[in-house]
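Q: Could you predict the 3D structure of MerR family transcriptional regulator?
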Amino acid sequence: MGSEIRRSMPVLPISIVMQLTDLTARQIRYYEEHNLVQPHRTEGNRRMFSLNDVDVLLEIKEMLERGTNMAGIKKVFAMKKHVNTEGKKEISDRELRRIMREEMLQARSMQKTSIRQGNFTRFYK
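A: Sure. Here are the predicted structure tokens for MerR family transcriptional regulator:
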């Protein structure tokens, strides 16, 4: 069995995910409502999370701690998903920062504000 298959297997109940991530059940359900994480549901409708889901939740938590709002987090995930659907590998944080920096510099040179600048200026201090 490949490591990616193991990482995507839904084996963790929400109680364990809460301990691993230091998030409340309410927070986890909120991120699920916003389609940032999609845990598997058992026949009894219990949420079961994979290690990949835990990684996503930790990434969300880290972005929130850095001051990114939910709209910004959704944009980051949408950009990652868009890149993945084009058949390319997942975009790295470094690559995302490079893209955002270039966009902000280009907008600045045209004396305009980047559409995303309000959400991402904290990354480019």
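Q: Anything worth pointing out?
A: The first helix runs from residue 3 to 8.
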